[in-house]
Hints:
By secondary structure, the protein is mostly helical. It has one domain. It has two helices and no strands. Helix 1 (about 1-65) runs antiparallel to helix 2. Keywords: Coiled coil.
Amino acid sequence: MGGSRLTTEQEAEVTSALREVNKLRRDLMSATRDLVGVQGKVDQHKARMAQLIRQQVQLSTQLANVRQGGVESNNRLVAAINALQGQLDLLKGMTPEADEAESKARAE
């Protein structure tokens, strides 16, 4: 009787440990999904910033090549460059939040 009781206690311990392992595994998978999602958003954020910078460079190049007296073209290009700069400033303001979200997701 004593031997079977010991086996039963050991089985209960193993069962409990397996439950804990399964819970930890689910938690890890959930945290990994969260991290992948956050990393995707950060990557999109960085890609959008790079795209805006490329557009700004192209417009600046066009502005440098505006012919003398092309006031309308000049003003249009300056307005577009300023709009892009405003978008970049907004995105740069969001960068610390994105970095913080990524760091938090990694910590979990």
